[in-house]
Amino acid sequence: MTFMDEERATFEKFLPGLEQRLRDVPIAVLESGESPGLRLLREHGGPGLLVPTRYGGAGADLIEALRVQRVLGARSPSLALAANMHHCTVVAMPPCRVTEELLTEVASEHRYLASGFGEGRPAASVLKPTMRGERHGDGWRLNGAKRPCSLSLSMDYLTASVMLTLPDTGGTEMALAVVPASSPGLEVRPLGATGVLPGSETHEVVLTDVDVPDGHVSSFGDPQSLNAALATAFHVFELMVSASYTGVAGGLVEEVLRRRRGTPGERVELVGALEATMASLEAVARSAPAAIGEPAGVARALHVRYAAQRTVERVAAHAAELLGGTSYLIDGFGVGYLTAARALAFHPPARGAMAEPLDRFLYGEPLVIP
Description:
Low-confidence stretches: none
Shape: globular
Distance between the termini: 43 Å
Order of helices and strands: HHHHHHHEEEEEEEEHHHHHHH
CATH superfamily of the largest domain: Butyryl-CoA Dehydrogenase, subunit A, domain 3
Number of strands: 8
């Protein structure tokens, strides 16, 4: 079976032996709260995939990262989601001495970075965090909660968006804080009973009077301006998360091909839809060096993400239908992957929320992430 051969070759290049180890673990175990997926990825040096080689990382480019994420999505949706959040955090880290030291540690010690931007507030913007930072001595004291937060049990560092209160003016400024997971006052709480992506370790992380030094807090400036740092973060995230869920749908299609379910026409249609989606993601990634950090690059990434979202939903539903009720109701494979594939719609920014901003951007207005 040649489906996803190129992606598997890239995966083997950067993470040799990992795909087979994941295949050897039953899906029911990989997609559970006791999943060994994150441990296996750490053992194979996965945290350093996107860390530049000058810091000791693998230095994968964006297209290679998309291919790795597609394979991870096919093997374990939960692991793909958790790894995606780590990788996007690595890319979004602002350049400074502390970042260089952190990325070197990520590569050499296989450290995980959890991404704390969501706060579980319906229709709220990830660019308007309620977590607060107040000046305290030579650093900042943080209070608030992040949810849902993947990698919450395996993380070595939490990277969290925070609204700083500036002591000189009393104004506020959005920033990124890097908090060691062992910090006093940091607590992980269960998010609730959920059967969706349980192996991603998605819970709530609460910070109560957590102190961090100045060097571990980097300003994002005005989030409404979509500056280069924020634009880069959104650009990479939309492509990576889309590839991850394209892989989830691909896991279902792999099973359809293996069992020879449906007609030749149906099988070719499923594969063709996902191949077209992946080609569009790679095309945007290929233009990224020139467009990354620019609003136009973010807009293009959003367009292909929303197109991927529709395709993944349709392909996953059709593939699950072809696999039949036994897969869906008895062995749990179909329902687990079908439910996971739908989760792409819930990653920010939502399609409905971005319709008007993207429409305005088409007419020459600045791109704003609501």
